[in-house]
Amino acid sequence: MVGQARLGSKAYLLQLLAALVWACLVIRVVSATDDCTTDHGNGRERKLPKYTVSFLTHDGQFYLAAEEGAPTGYKLVATSSVIHGTRESETFTMFDLNGGALNSDDDVNLALVSASGCYWQAENGGNGDIVTSKDYDAPYEIFRIVRQGGDGEIKNGDKVYLKTNKGYFVMAHGHGGGQVTASREEVTEEHDEEEQFTLVIHSIEWPNDSGYLSYEFGFYGVTYTPPPATTTAECASDYENGKYRAVPKYTVSFITDDGQHYLAAEDGNPYKMVATSPVAYGAGEPETFTMFDLNGGTLNSDDDVNLALVPVSGCYWQAENGGNGDIVSSKEYTDPHEIFHIARQGGDGEIKDGDKVYLKTNKGYFVMAHGRGGGQVTAKGDDASFGGGEDQFTLVIHSVEWPDSGYLSYEFGFYEPSPSPAPAPAPAPAEGTGSGARRFGGVAYDPYLVSCRVFVDAFPPVDLSDITNAYGAYIINLNGNEIEVGKLKLQPAAQSGEAQVQEGSSICHDSITKLRFTVPLEAPVGSEVVSPLTSLVSHMMTGDSRTAAEAQTIVKYALMFDDQLDLLTYDTMDALYRDEASAYNVLKKTSQVLNIVNQCQALFTSSSVAEAMFLSLTKAMSRHYDSRSTQRGLLQATDLFDLTSPSFVSNLYKDTATDMGLAADGAAAEAMIEAVGTSVASLNNVISEASGSAGTDILKEVAKVDIILQTEVKSQVTKLVSGTIDVDLFKDSTTAQVVTSKVAETIVPVNVEEYLEASHAYIESSGGEVPDQRAAPESSSSGDDQTGVIAGAVGGLSAGLIVAGLLLYRRSKRRRRQVVMTEQNPMKVRSHEGVAGRPGGACPGPLKCCWGDGGGSSTTSTVGSLGGNQLLSGISYTGEYGHGGGASSSAAGAGPSSSGQKVIVSLEDVE
């Protein structure tokens, strides 16, 4: 009875409850070191985007990592100097609790993969260590990720801060190398380096109804699982000899000089090297090789290398008989015919990712891609071209492993690769044809852009794209019922190679100037055009969280356009043909915006610089618009938006550098930026002054200015950056007077009047109908019928040829204006204003989005480089942005026109 009374007493029940709570706490502490796989998998159950990430400390020397032995299992430190692999202590799984794209101020869970999925927890919400925990949904396991530079999408390589639910910032004490805590309440200039980390995104998986779709950004984006490869020989043992010989092991690809193709393996017995693949799909694919540096140490010009073909289980490439024939796979790595001499364009020195290189056989023959890419590859070249051609390739380094006690892996693909791949091959829905098929079309212009790939960057990801025809028109088949989140994007040409392309070229180019077009463009889904103006609208929607209508209003206000103008439907080129007065101003302002972006590409060599520049422009537009309601008589200088103001343009460039994580250190760097800004602003005045009696005349004059700006002036910026010329010489050689005199001598390579007349006739012949059938687009050629139109309309031949070309196109009746429709039901398309698409979009690449088909802009100097991004040569900079990426190539001028007239006149260096 006493026992029963005791069991029933309230005091005893309270004691029992307390004991149970204490037991749970003890069990909780013990189980924290146990398997957390179930909780780790909850990201999938919650259908959240799942990232594989690492965090690099501000000193660039250490990664956040898990240290075993904390009371709860693991403690976060910053002592690892390398990412050892996908399930090692430096690699975490991150779930974006907000879903969609990863944006600044999103809440995230961080899971420690190497601890079977246990989550990181800020003890007591901050002001202490960061340790592992099982409770993914507890508030202390939620971190807020903040992008340095403010709002917007967070991409691979961005600088970020991590903030606990109580407002404490995660910090690496001493900038890295030891303790990590969540103990600082605010970020200050004095200590911001300790709270700042570079986000490294290795991969991302998007949830769908059937599980997860995996996108590996370590190899340029979306990869897929190919069918098992067939092979004629097993070379695995020889393939591993690189490790036994203790030589550096690189994973590489080679882009041909046309910027459109990769060296690849063609199936056969034996395998043969060709240059037909438009994209490097990933590790273990035909475009990806293993390269052993036989000289050891860093990869330098004139080193000897072995090249192994990964998809053939490691067979080595061999120049048959040492050259003067095909390149095929072989088992014998020790054979001299398997040794290639790799040489860097520009002479001696270290060879880096994005460099232009030559491959030479042991008998002195150069490897060459016939026709600069797109077909046969042999080792028949007797001498290097030294300036671009069939024997020149862009080296793409995906990763490098250094031999020591085994291999240490350094994945450069995780940061910022040079080339731009084609769209994601997965998922790949069937082509939408026949009854009920949904399509939409439009036009890309600056002026009309020819042979450019326009694709849908959507969430969930889709594989929808087309190549623009002779009048900038594209048409895309939509295969799903709805695009949840998306944009239209235009993939530009690489900045390397000849500036002016040949007639009928498959390289993305301007239809009037024939210059390769190197600026990435985008537009909200639903737009009828893709242009620099729609790019401003799209970037403002993403970066400034504006609706499409709000973004249009702000852009038009800043550029002083008619408020009735619809930037998402307005075709400036056709308006010029109709001689609409409003088109004059639109053309000039568009050209000025592109001049700013083009020169920025030469000033800062990064594959994402154009996007950063567009964002800087939209921020300035927003400030200008927001200050319109002030009661002051005049706006402050910081509120002005003037594309012809030296201080305004210079500040734009400085803002762009800051947003990319680059900060100038020293007066010389400031002077260079201001010199370029002053020059660009002055030359924008030259654009403003272009005149003519009709729209076609205005277009012709602006085209002349563009030719000089995008070749000669851009080349001078490159020389300034590389240290070839100084600031004073740059200023003297790029004055408005010098450029104006060169413009007067320049010949536009196209009969503008005939071309606009032909393009207008094409619009009229389209009839506004979506074609019922059309051939699958070819990414590497314009097609015979397209060439016919170019030859007839652009070349200025007889009217009969023009009509013949138009008849060829009329078969498909591509419509110029945007159409989203179905034969049965209207197509539902959501532009999701203000919401970004998935990071990287349908353009794989690490999340920096890999614009261009061959890499970044060019300089020959490596002094002052920051990882893959060079700001200004010879100048000291603080900050890091990217590691191991960024292209380096030589700028090239254009040659004479087919008529023999002088098209581009060189600027002389003024003494």
UniProtKB/TrEMBL annotation:
Q: Does the keyword Membrane apply?
A: yes
Per its UniProt entry, which superkingdom is the organism in? Eukaryota
InterPro entries noted in UniProt: Actin-crosslinking (IPR008999)
Its signal peptide is: 1-32
| Residue spans crossing the bilayer | 789-809
Q: Which UniProt keywords apply?
A: Membrane, Signal, Transmembrane, Transmembrane helix
Per the record, where are the segments of Low complexity compositional bias?
888-900
Positions of region (Disordered):
765-787, 885-911
The UniProt record lists the keyword Iron? no
Q: What is this protein called?
A: Uncharacterized protein
Q: Lineage in the entry?
A: Eukaryota, Viridiplantae, Chlorophyta, Chloropicophyceae, Chloropicales
